[in-house]
Amino acid sequence: MSMTKHSQVAKRYAEALFATIVASDHAPASISEEIQQVISILEDSKVHSVFHHPKTAKKRKGELVKLMNVSPITESFLLLVVEKSREGLLPSIAYHFEQLVLEAQQTTIAEIVSAIPLAAETLENLTGRLQKLTNKTVRLATKIDPSIGGGLIIKLDGKVIDGSISHTLKQFRQSLVN
Prior knowledge:
With about 180 residues, the chain is an alpha+beta fold. It is about 60% helix and about 15% strand.
């Protein structure tokens, strides 16, 4: 299966789970947290080696899911994923599901990359400006990367605003060559 096909399948599973949750009056955000916890458990090397081993029976995987002690709706979903042999898609399903939850909450995540840690006041100002720009609630995910030299790189709703010094220098070099 190609990556785009995988992504489409994962997206369909995420949409089906989201529709089920909305119809059953559960909180999508809490289910999203549970799925993230499940993925963390499955990333543990011992659990991963058993759960993702080709010789591990679906029944055994189902027993492992039941041991995770998640809500009935999450457990049913995970058992379906195991039954359909789609457990390899769980991280992708979780990503698409999180996007649906954020969209429903009129929220977006802005990834901020800076060369040095930013002051709380700077982050507050940035959040306010991004909320005005998007008309959504903005949550920040910050990352420190000294290689950008200075300035900021902002990734928001599929767009990248690169105001880093390294990017500016690269553009300047290009303009000198041309």
